[in-house]
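DM between two lab members

TW: hey, do you still have the Solute carrier family 2, facilitated glucose transporter member 8 entry open?
JB: yeah, one sec
JB: this one, 465 aa:
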Amino acid sequence: YLRVQNKKLYLATFAAVLGPLSFGFVLGYSSPVIPELRKINDPELRLDSNQASWFGSVVTLGAAAGGILGAYLVDKVGRKLSLMLCSIPYVFGYVVIISAQNVWMLYFGRTLTGLASGITSLVVPVYISEVSHPKVRGMLGSCVQLMVVTGIVGAYAAGITLKWRWLAVLCSFPSCIMLLFMSFMPETPRFLLNRNKCSEAIASLHFLRGPHVDHEWECRQIEASVQEEGVNLSEFKNTSVYRPLLIGVALMFFQQVTGINAVMFYAETIFEDANFKDSRMASVVVGSIQVCFTAVAALIIDKTGRKVLLYISGIIMALSTALFGLYFKMVLPNQNNSSNPDVWLTLNSASPGTESSISWLAVLSLGLFVAGFALGWGPVPWLVISEIFPLKARGVLSGACVLTNWIMAFLVTKEFHDIIGFLTSYGTFWLFSAFCCLNVTFTAFYVPETKGQTLEQIEAYFTRS
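TW: and the structure you got?
JB:
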């Protein structure tokens, strides 16, 4: 029965997750392109170290703005149209990059693609959660993160052979295909019912569930929880609003302070220490690990539940970041008094051969961390925030969470060098390990299990509590 009814649901999900695929290409684009632009002959386009860091991190600022814009669009124009509209800054951003004549045009193009990524990261989880059946919502929601990491790997792999302008051309394709496919997909029944469009909501359910289901019964179930759109400041004192908001913001905060950006920052250095001479291929290997374990999470999340994966993921990441700290403590035993946060210089100043002799420890830590993150703290927070917010405030509350995530991503990316200078490399990774332990504690006490529940049941749970 479920297999029959879900065929077109999978089609709608595929159309939506082309957005996260575009988002992944945006994130992965900088990794192969920055080394190329740092060596380019054109002085107007050549990047120095500071410009290279901005080229990578300005996307997060654009995405933070996209989270705010997405919060407005998703409630005003709907989930479907928001996704179609975000393809415009994706394509226009890449057009600016392709035609760039100076560094500022590169920044502008990256900011536009970041803006589109912020809208995508908010709207797609909401769209998928609202069209999905409870028994497959976890799997389909996890496909968001799966497509993000697939896009990252795709950009890494394509960057091995393509120059930066041609890579930008390739990266613009998924958003164009999304625009085409989404034009044939339905709006979510919950949004339509919130606009009192009952006949259109039934037509949407007919597409998503098939003809042999009682669409009117499901409409009545949704209508019972549909309230007038919008949320007043006074309503934030209600547990049905403020409690899921606090949980969502905390999940986004903890996802970034696990140290994922820091570990990926070290990845190229670690693989070179382990005699992986082709650093670009090493990046593909790391990305492939993410894809594999995110796919595993998607397949098992509706059976194991959300909290179990967060527990397992947090414990694995706590152990692996502790091992990372041990690695740098052994490689850089005299770094306590060093004010130089540059990883390359500090590794080169270590005792000759020290880092190579224990490089297996760093590679093991890297593999464990990436696998652990992909298994839980990568996909699950995005899935949970798409499930726990009340319909009337879903856009606003999701926007607050996306804004938190991208601001934290920017701070971790830009201030990482300063943190190392203050705490040393091993101290920084042990701090990340402590945060991972805190993640597990937070999950145990505050994150609700949403496996197998309808969105209306989840909303009722927060209302009762």
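TW: got it. The chain has 22 helices and no strands. Residues 335-341, 347-352 have pLDDT under 50 and may be disordered.
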